[in-house]
Amino acid sequence: MNKSERNNLIKGLLFISPWIIGFVTFVLYPFLSSIYYSFCHFNVFEPPQWIGFANYINLFKDKVFWISLYNTFFYVIIFIPLSFIVSMTLALLLNTKVKGLSFYRIIFYIPTLVPMVALSILWLWMFNGEYGILNHFLIKMGVPKPPNWLADPRYAKPAIIIMGLWTLGQAIIIYLAGLQDVPRSLLESADIDGAKWYHKIFHIIMPLISPVIFFNILMSVIISFQLFAQPFIMTGGGPGRSTTFYLLYLYQKAFEDFRMGYASSMAWILFIIILVLTLFSIKISKKKVYYGG
Amino acid sequence: MSRKEGAVERKIYKFYVSLILMLLSLSFIFPFLWLVSTSLKPIDQTMKMPPVWIPKAYYIEDNGEKIRVFFDEDEKVAEDSWLVEIMESARKGEVLLVAEDDIKKGTIDIDVQRADIVKTVNVRVKTIKSIPAGRYMVKEMLKEGDTGSPRIFYVKRERVEQKVKFEFSNYIVATRKIPFFLYLKNTLIVCFLSVIGVLLSSSLAAYGLSKIQWKGRDTVFFIVLATMMIPFPVTMIPLFTIFKKLGMTGTLMPLWVPTFFGAAFNIFLLRQFFMTIPNELIEAAKIDGCSEFQIFYRIIIPLSKPILFVVGLFQFLYAWNDFMGPLIYLTNQKTFTLSLGLQFFQSQHGGTEWHLLMAASTMVIVPILILFFFTQKTFIESITLTGIKG
Question: Which domains does chain A have, with CATH numbers?
């Protein structure tokens, strides 16, 4: 290493030194101690006590853990396809050179800006079984006995999914931008060949913007696995355990029961699930996603 | 198909698309209308089916005094009745409205509870006033801070005067109940400090990762990207214990201190931008005798204002909206942020004071909307950028 190389190394490290300190204290150390805690009995007030795999074994015996896992998968499996259909449909509609595009874009985007707490409280009120505006409309539309949404274990999860559909603005805007990048010439030549609109959508547009779709869906899957504020504020996990989602249960274990070791092992299982899903979908995407120039 | 027919078809098609979009956008705006409408109602009108959209105020005149009252169409007196005062038993002195037919020789049957047993007894009553069928019962609406029980009147429908009235006072009451301004101050402290922190630390790191050539740089950049893969729940518990050991839980510090040490996604965004700045500029500055830090400060930063603005804006928004961070770290009510304060208020008063909750929620949302309206172009562009190229 010559003098200028050494100089550059020192300068480079100096510039990123805040990040290095942050990385070690707020990422690496917590990351490693999280593994360690997951093998410990730990309640914050006393030092952690090594108990081997006991947390993991207890987790597998914990009914509520399985319920929370089921609830979370239920949410992800229903919400992700539904949100894709809704946001892609809206993006396709917006891509028809309709008047007032920027107006619609703003309208669809605004709900995503609202703080989750305010949003949850608003929907809690809209879902209110007695005085909620939603049931008022359902009655008007001829539903004789609309569900008591968040107070009914059968409808609490669907209610949270419905609310999620209201905050798709980001996906709509991203898809729209993807659609606008599709070359007109391709669509025009398809027109000449007599392609119908659905041919164009499924055989030209979708393959072309598949990288955007892939990235977006992957991100929303990762976020959906960490659903927290909505159930915490709106239902507290109930009724029954119907909205005890994974992260909510983890939070309750960690910060209500102070079983930090137990919660850490939950965090690691979540991490592994997300990691496996990500790697798996990247592998699939290499085959299915079209990465043009 | 002739060309003309095609044009007509396209017009019809466009009309339908516009119609669908309009309906959909209405359904996106709709919850906001309901939010604002509820926030401007007096409490009784929040709980009505069918719902009241435009809040109203009802008044009656009594001896020249104009009294604000609660009014409900359902509170109609069905048959000729008397207002009576009970003269005996444990319920002596109570005033009741009794149907005329139920009064027999100056007595009525009432339920009296003693210990756990409810017994029906016949008691003497004194008639006070005759209330003919068709009157409405209205109850005086007490002002904030009024003590004593509200007066009750039985009036003809015509005597109830009604006026559209938005209850702006809900907002004032909500700011007092929540302590809104204290929480606003806390939120703004976190917002501003974390914006400064993120801008400083991330731009320094991004410069080190893009404009200086050093051994191991690419490895470090890879680590920066890899940290984005770690979900917050994984580091959440150890972070809590760290801040607890440092005595920072219960203060705002855990929410802004880490931002002074770089945030992966922002470093990535800024690095990508810095890469597009030509190296010739830097070489020229070096020849002029500028130090590395001067180059960073005098050349790179001024050229990167747009991207720095985006990073700052999104950090502000994140800090304003963040719920889980404050929930975990802020163990002291005096340090609550708006998000946490709002949730706390809801958990204490939820289920009844919807008008105040909606007023408070509106106040938390509106600043963000104002910010958005001034910066919407930046917003939309940067979402597109990070969503597609990210």
Answer: 56-288 (1.10.3720.10)
Find chain A residues with C-beta within 8 A of B378's C-beta: none
- Predicted complex ipTM: 0.89
Q: Cβ–Cβ contacts within 10 Å for residue B9, how many?
A: 11
Omega of the bond leading into A239 within 30 degrees of 0 (cis): yes
Per-chain mean pLDDT for chain A:
89
Cα of B234 to nearest chain A Cα, Å: 5
Integer CA distances (angstroms), B99 to A190, B103, B153, B157, in order: 80, 7, 16, 19
Tell me the nearest-neighbour CA distance from B286 into chain A, angstroms: 13
Determine contact: B374 vs chain A, CB below 8 A: no
Burial of A137 (0-12, 13-18, 19+ CB in 10 A): middle
Domains of chain B: 56-170 (no CATH), 178-349 (1.10.3720.10)
As a whole number of angstroms, the distance between CA B266 and CA B260 comes to: 12
Q: Residue A290: left if φ>0, alpha if ψ -120 to 50, beta else—which one? A: beta
Q: CA-to-CA distance for B280 and A114, rounded, in angstroms? A: 44
Average pLDDT (A263-288) is 90
Partner-chain contact B237 A124, CB within 8 Å:
no
Q: What is the pLDDT of residues A143-198, one digit of tens each?
A: 888 888 888 889 999 999 999 999 898 899 889 988 888 888 888 888 888 888 88
Interface check for B379 against chain A (CB to CB < 8 A): the answer is yes
Q: Is the dihedral of CA B216, B220, B225, B231 positive or negative?
A: positive
Residues of A in contact with B233 (CB under 8 A): 226, 247, 250, 266-267, 270-271
- A254: closest chain B residue by CA: B237
Question: Cβ of B228 under 8 Å from any chain A Cβ?
Answer: no
Q: Which residue of B has its CA nearest to A177?
A: B384
Residue A25 clears pLDDT 60, i.e. is over it: yes
